[in-house]
Specification:
This protein has about 240 residues and is an alpha/beta fold. The chain has a single domain (about 5-230), classed as Rossmann fold, CATH 3.40.50. About 40% of the residues lie in helices and about 15% in strands. The chain has helices at about 15-25, 35-45, 65-75, 100-130, 150-170, 205-215; strands at about 5-10, 30-35, 55, 80-85, 130-135, 175-180, 225-230. Strands 3-2-1-4-5-6-7 form a seven-stranded parallel sheet, with helices on both faces. Helix 5 links the parallel strand 5 and strand 6 (about 175-180). Helix 1 packs across helix 6 and helix 3 (about 65-75) runs parallel beside helix 4 (about 100-130). The longest helix has 29 residues, at about 100-130. The radius of gyration is 17 Å and the shape is globular. The protein starts with a strand and ends in a 9-residue tail after the last strand. Bound molecules: 5-hydroxy-NICOTINAMIDE-ADENINE-DINUCLEOTIDE PHOSPHATE. 5-hydroxy-NICOTINAMIDE-ADENINE-DINUCLEOTIDE PHOSPHATE binds near residues 182 and 188.
Length: about 240
């Protein structure tokens, strides 16, 4: 029977390419994003020949939204094999400039979103005694960005801690939990644009997606719990 995956934040960037590469592997998809762009992405994938793509406008930080997506996926496909927690945002400014609203919002999307989606899929994965949950954290989960990165870094450390802990909690249920930690990736992240000339040597969305597919499609008895990837030109203090 085909495998199924829920991918958060798949309107564009890394999530969209993960959707494409998993679809190419024959995985049935539920993709979600907080804007209606998610429907255009689903159309694009269908035009490329991938038929099993359900799209949802859903905010990962909203419990009801995410529960609906998970329930509808289970109803349509019968099971939930993979969750790719990819949705994330970043504001980069000095700590004096970060507002409480920005702090809360970034934690809601980057951390609470991962918690809610994970919480929602676990009962179904436990029923099947199988599942894979991969979260796109960041290489900043291992060091801190010197300037302007305090808020974003704090959220990704939180995600790393959360995932590391549940990885052990659900191992006995046949569920694999891992994180992928990229350095600079050419996407729309932090109000940027994909394909800018100055990002030519950054990681590509296809690099990250291929690594996620590798983690997600690993043999059942194997867990790839953490991957760190950097463009060669990026310094990465350890
Ligand atoms: O960014 P971008 P990336 N609920 O902006 C969606 C991490 N990362 O692909 O909501 C649901 O192109 C948004 O869609 P929409 C990063 O922290 C990146 O680079 O419809 N979805 C879009 O599809 C993040 O965790 C770099 O506007 C929500 C997607 O998220 C992940 O990679 C480095 C949402 C963001 O696409 C993907 O980011 C690194 C919500 N509330 C880690 N809010 C890097 N690019 O350099 C946003 O270490 N989305």
């Amino acid at each position: 029977k085909s495998q199924t995956a829920i991918i958060t934040g798949a309107s564009r960037g890394i999530g969209k390419e993960v959707a494409r590469q998993l679809a190419a592997e024959g995985v049935k998809l539920s993709i979600l994003g907080s804007s209606s762009q998610i429907h255009e992405t689903a159309e694009e994938l269908k035009n490329e020949g991938y038929e099993d793509v359900l799209a949802f406008v859903a905010d990962v930080s909203n419990e009801n939204d995410i529960e609906q997506v998970v329930e509808k996926t289970k109803k349509a496909y019968g099971k939930v094999d993979m969750l790719i927690n990819n949705a994330g945002i970043g504001k980069f400014k000095s700590v004096e400039e970060v507002t409480v609203e920005e702090w809360k919002k970034t934690f809601e999307v980057n951390v609470q979103g991962v918690f809610l989606a994970t919480k929602a899929v676990l009962p179904y994965m436990k029923q099947e005694k199988f599942g894979t949950i991969i979260t796109v954290a960041s290489d900043v989960s291992r060091y801190t960005i010197p300037e302007g990165g305090s808020l974003y870094t704090a959220t990704k450390y939180a995600v790393q801690g959360f995932m590391g802990s549940i990885a052990q909690e659900v191992r006995k249920d046949g569920i694999r939990v891992g994180t992928i930690n990229p350095g600079m990736v050419d996407t729309y992240f932090a109000e940027s644009k994909q394909g800018l000339p100055e990002k030519e040597n950054w990681l590509k969305v296809s690099d990250i997606a291929a690594s996620i597919v590798h983690m997600a499609r690993a043999p059942k008895h194997m867990l790839i719990d953490e991957l760190h990837l950097h463009p060669l030109e990026q310094e990465y203090p350890r």
